[in-house]
Amino acid sequence: MSRDARWKALLELLVERGRLDVEEAAAELAVSSATIRRDFDQLAEQQMLVRTRGGAVVHGVSYELPLRYKTARHASEKQRIGKAVASLVTPGEAVGLTGGTTTTEVARALAVRGDLSSGSPALTVVTNALNIANELAVRPQFKIVLTGGVARPQSYELVGPLADGVLSQITIDVAVLGVVAFDVTHGTSAHDEAEAAINRLLCERAERVIVAADSSKLGQRAFARICATASVDTLVTDTAAGPDTVRQFEEAGLRVVAV
Question: What is the pTM of this model?
Answer without folding.
Answer: 0.78
